[in-house]
Write a structure and sequence with these properties.
Blueprint (H helix, E strand, L loop, with lengths): L2 H20 L3 E2 L8 E4 L2 E3 L1 H13 L7 E5 L5 H12 L16 H4 L20 E4 L8 H4 L4 E6 L2 H16 L8 H10 L7 H14 L4 E5 H6 L1 H11 L6 H5 L2 H8 L2 H6 L1 H5 L1 E2 L7 E2 L18 H15 L6
Parallel strand pairs: 4-5, 4-6, 6-7
Antiparallel strand pairs: 1-2, 2-3, 8-9
Helix pairs in contact: 1-2, 10-12
Bound molecules: adenosine-3'-5'-diphosphate.
């Protein structure tokens, strides 16, 4: 194919997406991202939405891939670090682990970012793909495959604060342009990138109940309180269980320590490195490591506001078994 015909094909594809997107419901209340579009029940910035549709149409996983899923700011980088360390534990040691030199996002690419236009654009030795795409919009190639899915969820109040601060920083719009009250209002309506949170979480929660061999549901807060137990659970689910000797040698604990917020955030790469994404602004790696705590929302939300959010989640999760 000549360069000219490639350019034509790509501009036809872009036009096709633009046409689909221009007919979708819009909202511009999540200010750091400008206009968002509602596609299949979830909100997206237009450039990412093109990639989501493209992934739905053409992404093909490798048969043994693990698909790491999350709503943004729920602990995606942490999940990447932990699962990568579990699977690669016999190939790397404490001094050669790539996590020492690379941001977890550089090791495990996002389906709708790095791989959207070209799913072969990846290191096939690393059997991981990450995504923020909701379960109900996941490419059929993944749902129909034998690939295992791991989802990380987090207290929505912490997700809101983390999302709000990250988006303000990355977009450079300034706190005064998007006060927390406004962000909370949008969040309660579900109108922010990959929102609504409750539908995102419920999609994976229900799938984990229906297909427990395929979908594992993990909570950020559980990883915080009992990391080794949940790392052991993940390893078993992934088909890489720890042997008795490994447990005696404390391998699950070593993985938890290696991937801890304190350790990862103190590495040179994560203090001073930069993450360059196609079609997105360059982000400083340290932006992905802010506080890493459960309950930081208490420093930002009044009890009244927290209760409002809790009440919404309680209603949405009611009857699902999810607390
Ligand atoms: P805070 O902003 O509350 O600190 P994501 O990776 O999905 O973008 O999520 C980012 C959130 O996960 C940030 O939360 C970040 O600090 C936290 N985080 C990153 N690495 C972590 C780790 N190793 N352990 C716990 N939390 C981590």
């Amino acid at each position: 194919m000549t360069d000219a015909s490639k350019t034509n094909e790509s501009s036809n594809t872009n036009n096709k997406y633009e046409e689909i997107i221009s007919n979708l419901p819009q909202d511009n209340g999540w200010k750091p991202f400008g206009k968002l579009y509602n596609y299949q029940g979830f909100w997206y910035a237009p450039s990412l939405l093109q990639n989501v549709i493209s992934a739905q149409q053409s992404f093909t996983p490798q048969p043994k891939d693990f698909i790491l899923c999350s709503s943004p700011k729920s602990g995606t980088a942490w999940l990447k670090a932990l699962t990568f360390s579990i699977v690669s534990r016999n190939q790397v040691d404490d001094s050669t682990n790539p996590l020492l030199k690379k941001l977890p996002h550089e090791i495990v690419p996002f389906m709708e970012i790095e791989l959207a236009q070209n799913s072969s654009n990846r290191n096939l030795d690393i059997p991981f793909v990450a995504t923020h795409i909701p379960y109900t919009s996941m490419p059929k190639s993944i749902i129909d495959s034998d690939c295992k899915i791991i989802y990380i969820s987090r207290d929505p109040k912490d997700v809101l604060i983390s999302h709000w601060i990250f988006d303000i920083k990355v977009s450079g719009i300034g706190l005064e342009s998007f006060p927390l009250e406004e962000a909370l209002e949008q969040y309660c309506k579900g109108v922010y990138p990959f929102g609504p949170y409750w539908d995102h979480v419920l999609g994976f929660w229900k799938a984990s109940l229906e297909f427990p061999e395929k979908v594992l549901f993990v909570k950020y807060e559980d990883l915080k309180t009992d990391g080794p137990f949940h790392v052991t659970r993940m390893a078993k689910f992934m088909g890489h269980p720890f042997s008795v000797e490994e447990k005696q040698q404390g391998v699950p604990e070593k993985i938890v320590n290696m991937c801890s917020f304190e350790n990862l955030s103190s590495l040179e790469v994560n203090k001073n490195g930069k993450y360059n994404l196609p079609d997105l602004p360059t982000v400083e790696n340290k932006s992905f490591f802010r506080k890493g705590k459960a309950g930081d929302w208490k420093n930002h939300l009044t009890n009244e506001k927290a209760e409002k959010l809790d009440q919404i989640m309680k209603e949405k999760f009611s009857g699902s078994g999810l607390v």
